[in-house]
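Supplementary Note 3. Input sequence used for the single-chain structure prediction.
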Amino acid sequence: MGEQDALGDRIRAAYEAAGLNRSQFVRALGVAYSTVLHWEKGRTRPNADNLRRISEVTGLAGASLLRTEALAPGKAPAARSALMRFLATPMGRACSGEERTFLSNLDFAPAQPTLESYHAALLAYRLSAQSES
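The predicted structure, written as discrete structure tokens, is reproduced below.
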């Protein structure tokens, strides 16, 4: 996975736009330097709590960090399959139409999405929606 992850790129752009370097960002979040480095390189992804803190520190809504272009028909069947499995779970069935649209527009490339990644994305979206209202 030597290729930069789009989420990692958005995280770096968010803290740089907030006038922070990586060390300042790490201190503001209260996480290890290597944690942010792993996010930027696409090795790991922030959980919902970290997405909320990133949003607070940078002023960028968590949903904006996660938002990407829609999955094209016929593209990423594993992603569509994982999304369908998630929507069949109790939490997935409780999604609003807007939340379903948000989840269907996520692009987890190069990683394959899991039920946990959709769960974290939905929680981050809901936290972001609460903080914006």
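The chain has two domains: 6-66, 77-132. Residues 115-132 form the longest helix (18 residues).
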